[in-house]
Amino acid sequence: YRLNVTPIRTRDGENIGFITLLQDITKLKEVDQIKSDFVSTVSHEFRTPLTSIGMGVGLLLDETPGTINNDQRELLEVIQEDSDRLKNLVSDLLDLSRIESGKIQMDIESYSIKDIAENASKPFHMIAKDKRIDIQLDMREELSKVKADFNKISLVLTNLIGNALKYTATDGTGKIVISARETANKMLICVSDNGKGIPEDYQQRIFEKFIQVKDDNGETPGGTGLGLAISKEIVNAHGGEIWVKSQLGEGSTFYFTLSLGR
Ligand code: ADP
């Protein structure tokens, strides 16, 4: 059951009663389960044929010099790009449905957050250099350890850093900082950029599946719209929270928390 209590207040703010709504959500839960089973089965079944399409096109492109003309090559390249995109989507959907259903094994141990952040940011240094974006890891050696599944928190940081790179200017002014701060009982990890920013009314919704901010031409960016949904599920499964503060045109800072380890 879901219980919803709303106070009724007079204009002066005095409480004069409550509206109580008790809702049977058994059916809702069942539908949710069917939906996630369906997504997981379909994604799984998509994987094998997609792999062979990708391999086949790759072979045609690599191993037949001179036997295909330019138009055919262009077509094959489009097929390759699209099948890559579909493969990413399928793999994101599978990750998400596994985490959502609680089927994924969490391998929690104490780690240095700096080690995880270095592992996650390493693959981006080349891309950042190409895009003339300055990327900095600002974490003290003496920080306490965090309780984390190394690979999954790496994936969260990979998503956040990848986004920061995607939505930050490439004119040499772009800057990304990955940092961590310790509070009484938590580690606060931040990925901040000085990129395009996120409109206020999207700042909560981008953590939902498939929500992408449309650009000025009404187009959604490449990508699956699942990265932040996956990141939120992972952080929540660790008992942490994730949120964003952002100003349009100024940049965005994504925050998430983890428990301290030993
Ligand atoms: P994807 O990046 O695949 O579209 P995500 O779930 O990672 O999906 O992100 C959802 C949306 O949030 C993005 O499409 C983009 O509109 C917005 N977004 C995420 N990170 C940033 C950022 N650092 N700066 C500006 N917009 C962002």
Automatic annotation (TrEMBL):
Q: Does the keyword ATP-binding apply?
A: yes
Chief place of localization: membrane
User: Which GO MF terms does the UniProt record name?
Assistant: ATP binding; phosphorelay response regulator activity; phosphorelay sensor kinase activity; protein kinase activator activity
Q: Which UniProt keywords apply?
A: ATP-binding, Cell membrane, Kinase, Membrane, Nucleotide-binding, Phosphoprotein, Transferase, Transmembrane, Transmembrane helix, Two-component regulatory system
One GO cellular-component annotation of the UniProt record comes to: membrane raft
Residue span(s) of domain Histidine kinase? 41-262
One GO-annotated biological process of the protein? osmosensory signaling via phosphorelay pathway
Domain of life according to the entry: Bacteria
Q: Does the keyword Nucleotidyltransferase apply?
A: no
Give the UniProt subcellular location, in the record's own words.
Cell membrane; Membrane raft
Q: Where is the organism placed in the taxonomic lineage, from the top?
A: Bacteria, Bacillati, Bacillota, Clostridia, Peptostreptococcales
This protein is called what? Answer: histidine kinase
Q: Can you name the source organism? A: Anaerosolibacter carboniphilus
Domain PAC: from-to ranges: 1-37
